[in-house]
């Protein structure tokens, strides 16, 4: 009696996650990003870096550890690499996607009237600064049409303080030809309420701008819990 035929390697079933990946891609293409949960979008990103493994558990672990999709994308690269199952290559891929997103938001803002695109500006600042672990003091320089002509981080500090130098701010404003600026800094604590030191510093910068006819339109504090506008709080002296 002849032996039963055996299946060669080409007849082996594909790993179970292949069908899942196909279905997830199809949902994304047909339904758009809103049709997927955060961990499913994370899966799509990981597909590119980890083609031969079921990445659903890893995607869920990342969202759980960093709190959200945004938290994963904004996590420091060394913390991403510390997650079991995520290689250096995969961590770099995650950070490069985050960087591309930030760059896109910034390019959408440049050379356009900022005051007419306030919600878009807040989205950009939140994406860029809300998850930072240290304070950064950022200056948005505007021309006479209130178009954004430069966006620069002037200083970086500690987890709860960053210095600001009014004379340097005005010097740079004159160099780029700005007639108005928006001050921005982040609070890593998650609370966007201004401190007494924040208010005093803002008043000093406003005073420094007056001899040069440089207007301070606002001071925005960005945090994970939201943002605060000095102008909306009536704290900005003009």
From TrEMBL:
The keyword DNA-binding does not apply. InterPro entries: MPN (IPR037518), RadC_JAB (IPR025657), RuvA_2-like (IPR010994), UPF0758 (IPR001405), UPF0758_CS (IPR020891), UPF0758_N (IPR046778). GO terms for molecular function: metal ion binding; metallopeptidase activity. It comes from the Bacteria. Residues 114-236 form the MPN domain. Residues 1-25 are annotated as: Disordered. GO terms for biological process: proteolysis. It holds the Pfam family UPF0758_N. CDD domains: MPN_DUF2466 (cd08071). SUPFAM superfamilies: JAB1/MPN domain (SSF102712), RuvA domain 2-like (SSF47781). Keywords: Hydrolase, Metal-binding, Metalloprotease, Protease, Zinc. Belongs to the UPF0758 family. This is DNA repair RadC family protein. It comes from Micavibrio aeruginosavorus (strain ARL-13).
């Amino acid at each position: 009696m002849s032996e039963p035929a055996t299946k060669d390697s080409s007849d082996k079933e594909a790993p179970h996650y292949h069908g899942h990946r196909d279905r997830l891609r199809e949902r994304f293409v047909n339904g758009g990003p809103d049709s997927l949960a955060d961990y499913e979008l994370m899966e799509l990103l990981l597909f590119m870096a980890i083609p031969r493994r079921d990445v659903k558990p890893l995607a869920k672990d990342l969202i759980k550890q960093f709190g959200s999709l945004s938290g994963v994308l904004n996590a420091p690269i060394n913390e991403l690499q510390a997650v079991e199952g995520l290689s250096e290559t995969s961590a770099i891929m995650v950070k490069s996607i985050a960087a591309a997103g930030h760059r896109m938001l910034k390019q959408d803002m440049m050379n356009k009237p900022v005051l007419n695109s306030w919600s878009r500006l807040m989205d950009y600042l939140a994406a860029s600064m809300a998850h930072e672990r240290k304070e950064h003091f950022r200056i948005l320089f505007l021309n006479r049409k209130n178009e954004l002509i430069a966006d620069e981080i002037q200083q970086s500090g500690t987890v709860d303080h960053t210095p600001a130098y009014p004379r340097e701010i005005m010097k740079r404003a004159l160099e780029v030809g700005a007639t108005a600026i928006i001050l921005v800094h982040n609070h890593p604590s998650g609370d966007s309420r201004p401190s007494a030191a924040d208010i005093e510093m803002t008043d000093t910068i406003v005073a420094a701008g007056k001899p040069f006819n440089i207007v301070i339109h606002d001071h925005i504090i960005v945090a994970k819990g939201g943002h605060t506008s000095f102008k909306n709080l009536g704290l900005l002296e003009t």
